[in-house]
Design goal:
Elements lengths: L2 E7 L4 H13 E14 L2 H12 L19 H20 L3 E9 L1 H9 L5 E5 L5 H7 L2 H8 L4 E4 L9
Parallel strand pairs: 1-2, 1-4, 2-3, 4-5
Helix pairs in contact: 4-6
C-alpha cells in the first residue's frame, strides 16, 4: 500500500534531500509528490537555516540556495524554486506528478498548514541536532510529528558516501 499524495519538506541541505529518496519508497506509481520549502520569518528559524547551511559544504559550485534570506525577498524565493526544480527533476522523469511550493512563514506552522491540504503522509529528514543546539533551535521534525494531521515519515540524519 502506497500513498497518492506525498508532502516532502526541504530546507536546502543535503541531509534534507534524502527525504526525496524515501518519498518514492512510500508513493504509488504516478503519485503527486509535493515539495515544500518554507522561507522562515522568525529569527530562530533563520539561525537554524544558517547553521544547517554552514555545517555542510555546498552541493555544487553553482548552488543557488541562499542560506539566509528575508522571506519577502523575491530573488530568494526564485532561487529556492530553482533549487526545488533541480533536485526534483528526476522524480518527474520517473513518472511522478511533481509540484513545488515556496511559502513564507513559521516553519512548523507552515508545514502543518500545507499537510492539511489532503496529503496522506509527510516525509522529512531531521538534522539530528543534540544538546544546546536542539534546545536553542528546537526540532522542526518533532514539532511536525506531534501535530500533523497525517502520518509523518522522519528520516534520521546520516552522512552519505559523497559527504565523507
Amino acid at each position: 500500500m502506497g500513498y497518492d499524495r506525498v508532502l516532502v519538506t526541504l530546507d536546502g541541505s543535503k541531509f534534507a534531500e534524502i527525504a526525496l529518496e524515501h518519498a518514492i519508497k512510500v508513493a504509488n506509481a504516478g503519485a503527486n509528490i509535493h515539495i515544500l520549502s518554507v522561507m522562515a520569518q522568525d529569527a530562530i528559524s533563520e539561525i537554524a537555516s544558517m547553521v544547517s547551511a554552514v555545517a555542510q559544504p555546498p552541493a555544487s559550485e553553482d548552488q543557488d540556495w541562499p542560506p539566509i534570506a528575508r522571506s519577502d525577498d523575491p530573488r530568494a524565493a526564485h532561487a529556492r524554486e530553482a533549487y526545488l526544480r533541480r533536485v526534483s527533476d528526476w522524480l518527474a522523469q520517473a513518472g511522478y506528478d511533481v509540484t513545488i511550493e515556496v511559502r513564507p512563514g513559521s516553519v512548523i506552522e507552515t508545514i502543518l498548514s500545507v499537510a492539511q491540504d489532503g496529503f496522506e503522509v509527510v516525509v522529512m529528514a531531521t538534522h539530528g541536532r543534540t544538546g544546546l543546539a536542539r534546545v536553542a533551535l528546537g526540532s522542526v521534525a518533532e514539532g511536525v510529528l506531534h501535530r500533523s494531521p497525517c502520518p509523518v515519515l522522519i528520516i534520521p540524519a546520516r552522512k552519505t558516501a559523497h559527504d565523507a
